[in-house]
Amino acid sequence: MRKNIHIFFTINDAYSGYLSACMISILDNLDRGYIPYFYIIDGGISEKNKNKLKFLNIGREFYVEFIVVNQGLFKNLPNSSQSHISNETNYRFLVSTIKPNLDKCIFLDVDLVSVGDISKLWEICIDDYYMAAVGDQAPLHPESWTLKLPLPYDYLYVNTGVTLMNLKKWREDNIQELLFQNSAQYAEILQFPDQDTLNITLYKKIKYLSHIYNAMPVQTYYNEKQKQEAFSNPQIIHWAGYKKPWKYPNIAYAEM
């Protein structure tokens, strides 16, 4: 019997082409025993680009749903000062209530490609966790902004470009409300508002994933062991940071 797999994105119209490439990479490599459902939180996508995303010529079954959220909910929340981060990233705070029938989902940025079977990520058990993600090495730098965040000193900050989310547990513990509260409370010290807020809110119950699920070519703080783990058999390659393959064609793995 085929299984459903639920994958969320949040974008505006400018990122629709990159989302298309991301979705195709997932569909190309996903086990045929899974049917992917793509939920796209809509930050102003044109009808033309919506149709392109709905009718990808890929030769397998998949479903796409566009979801419009109340933007007024975010009027008091901070936006990122980083030019490569869109304001729509905060929309992921609503993921547990957008689809109240779902117990689990994968949430992805669009500056990545799946080079392996993403069902392997989907099948990881997170029953006792709010979220699973990969540790981000950049904040280990002694001048890191994360030192200002209300997190334990020895906590390993995670990158939220690839996350497996336990939506059932979010609803049980009212995580959505906590995300909005923390984002507003710590607005002045957040450098990456959605990612910082997820770390602040969920840090006690985060499961750490292997680096293969979020291999970041621009990550300059990998040690040799982490680098070998991430790129010996990467499942997802993520160009985190401002250097994107569509702007920097010579960046590592841009040919993917």
Task: Kindly summarize this structure in a few lines.
This is Glycosyltransferase family 8 protein. This protein is α/β, with parallel strands linked by helices. It has helices at residues 16-29, 47-54, 95-98, 119-122, 167-172, 175-185, 193-202, 224-232, and strands at residues 3-11, 34-42, 63-67, 104-108, 112-114, 131-135, 158-166, 206-208, 236-238.
The helix/strand series, from N terminus to C terminus, equals EHEHEHEEHEEHHHEHE
What level of helicity do the residues show?
25-40%
CATH topology, by name, is Spore Coat Polysaccharide Biosynthesis Protein SpsA, Chain A
Distance between the termini: 32 Å
Stretches where pLDDT is under 50 for at least 5 consecutive residues are 80-85
Total number of strands: 9
Q: What is the CATH class name?
A: Alpha Beta
Structural shape: globular
Query: In the residues, how many domains can be counted?
Result: 1
How does this structure look, described?
The protein is of the alpha/beta class and 256 residues long. The protein has helices at residues 16-29, 47-54, 95-98, 119-122, 167-172, 175-185, 193-202, 224-232; strands spanning 3-11, 34-42, 63-67, 104-108, 112-114, 131-135, 158-166, 206-208, 236-238. A seven-stranded mixed sheet has the order 3-2-1-4-7-6-8, sandwiched between helices. A two-stranded antiparallel ribbon has the order 5-9. The radius of gyration is 17 Å and the shape is globular. The two termini are 32 Å apart. Mean pLDDT is 88; it is low at 80-85.
